[in-house]
Design goal:
The chain is α+β, with helices and mostly antiparallel strands. The chain is about 50% helix and about 20% strand. It is built from 3 helices and 3 strands. Strands 1-2-3 form a 3-stranded mixed sheet. Helix 3 links the parallel strand 2 and strand 3.
Length: about 90
């Protein structure tokens, strides 16, 4: 069974794929990587914005953010995410 992003890419030309759809896909992938310690809020211009559940989760996320960036970029197939911005909501 094809994943939704692969189906969308086949059906919708890349030029009309849209920044909103790309942002949603990146946020979905990032949240799939996490173990519920953060929520992906948005993606825009290379910046993935995340909300941490607590200050300790924000600290841990800051330490491992490079791994998250690499994971998302690997799943997307190109270097799209350049940095992570962490917001502590706890």
């Amino acid at each position: 069974m094809d994943k939704l992003d692969k189906i969308i890419r086949k059906v919708v030309p890349q030029k009309t794929y849209g920044e909103a759809a790309r942002s949603a896909e990146i946020c979905f992938i990032a949240e799939g990587w996490s173990k519920c310690c953060f929520k992906a809020i948005s993606y825009s211009n290379g910046v993935l914005k995340l909300s941490a559940q607590s200050s300790s989760a924000a600290s841990e996320l800051h330490i491992i953010q490079d791994e998250l960036i690499e994971f998302v970029n690997t799943k997307i197939g190109r270097k799209t995410v350049r940095t992570v911005r962490i917001i502590n909501r706890g």
